[in-house]
Each structure stands twice: as C-alpha cells, then as structure tokens.
Write a structure and sequence with these properties.
About 0% of the residues lie in helices and about 60% in strands. It is elongated, with a radius of gyration of 14 Å. By secondary structure, the chain is mainly beta.
Length: about 120
C-alpha cells in the first residue's frame, strides 16, 4: 500500500508564495507521474501541474509562469512552488501519484491520492 502525505498549505496574502510538499511512502518500486490537483468549493478538481519521471512537465494555463513543480525521485517526493498567488488559487490541493509500481508486484500499476492540503489566499 502507498500513502501520500501533503504539507505546506496555509494562509497567504495575494502576491505571496507557498511551497507544497508531498511524500509518498510504502512498498514503492517506481512512480511514473507525480502531480498536483486542486479543487475549489463548487468546482471540479483540476490538474495544476504534473511531472513524469523523465522530467517532462505539464501546467495548467492559469499557473504557468507562477508555479513550478519539482521532484526528488530518490525520496518519492514532489514539490509545488507557488508564487504570485491570487485569490483564485485558493483551493484544497491534492497530490497524486500515477502509475505506481510496488516492489511486491512491479507488473501492476496503481494511482494514489493524498488527503489534500488547504491553500487560502487573502486579498
């Protein structure tokens, strides 16, 4: 079983910065994609940023140039540096590990979600 634990959320003023972290633990052999999603009240969960093992990244248009995703593959950890935060960035941010292979059965892949961390932006 794999667990994802996010940290780093909180309250920040508009224009400020936050750094989110997500650590995956368990019997992990490899994780192909680690990603951040967010969900604001009354809205669908949306992709914010994703990073595949080879280093390729994908960002939502609304965060390009402000957010940066990075990974520490040796520690199965993903980060999201969020700069120039806006009121519309406020949401619960979820970490997702995609196409995770376990050491016990590397032929099978699964996806896992974290519990989420709240980001609040005051204007």
């Amino acid at each position: 079983q794999v667990q994802l634990v996010e940290s780093g959320g909180g309250l920040v003023q508009a224009g400020g910065s936050l750094r989110l972290s997500c650590a995956a633990s368990g019997t992990i052999f490899s994780i192909f994609i680690m990603a951040w999603y967010r969900q604001a009240p009354g809205k669908q969960r949306e992709l914010v940023a994703a990073m595949a093992t080879p280093g390729t990244t994908q960002y939502a248009d609304s965060v390009k140039g402000r957010f940066t995703i990075s990974r520490d593959n040796a520690k199965n950890t993903v980060f999201l540096q969020m700069n120039k935060l806006r009121a519309e960035d406020a949401a619960v941010y979820y970490c997702k590990a995609e196409r995770v292979r376990s050491r016990s059965n590397s032929l099978r892949v699964n996806d896992y979600w974290g519990q989420g961390t709240q980001v609040t932006v005051s204007s």
